Structure of CoA transferase subunit A:
Amino acid sequence: MQKVVANADEAIADMQDNITIMLGGFGLCGIPENCIAALVRKGIKNLTCISNNAGVDDFGLGLLLKTRQIKKMMSSYVGENAEFERQLLSGELEVDLIPQGTLATRIQMAGMGIPAFYTPAGYGTEVATGKEVREFNNKMYLMEHALYADYSIVKAWKGDRYGNLVFRKTTRNFSTSIAKAGTITIAEVEHLVEPGELDPEHIHVAGIYVHRIFQGANYEKRIERRTVQINGK
């Protein structure tokens, strides 16, 4: 199976309006920059985006918010994006805020083929509204459903032409689970190598999960919020 495509534009060429996309990354670390830029260029609308965060105003998913291409965000942390806040408060953007551990597990369960699970996170709060509640060992739990997507998009450090992926340090974050939860998975990589060049013991996502892969370019690797000490404090 030929999985290698020329670039991000070719990788997302069949995407249409009203789809659900799951995107890897944590803050601005390990986000699929090339594919996000291609989505902006393509201009598809009414997207439901599942991602731990919503980027910042001028980078990451913030670019898709700026162009009003996102209809709904399903995220855990959204505190660095003023445009997100504006759209949420004005009613322009539908938002489903999910506890971070629950979000990670819902994605992981989709990749494992498990449709639902129980968690104590959110019990007794607004998160529990409309959800099934059960008691196990004298403790209350909410039933949460697995999260699936039409497309999963991740960025890896290295990948080979079969789609095997290696992530570097914290860029693994949500991406290893997201790569397994989409009907079609797209991977952009910093280094596209030939089969056999990756150590099998160090592969984080097996190629069977990846449908398209390409060599990315011009990665910025921004820092979401830079903090420094003042006067040694």
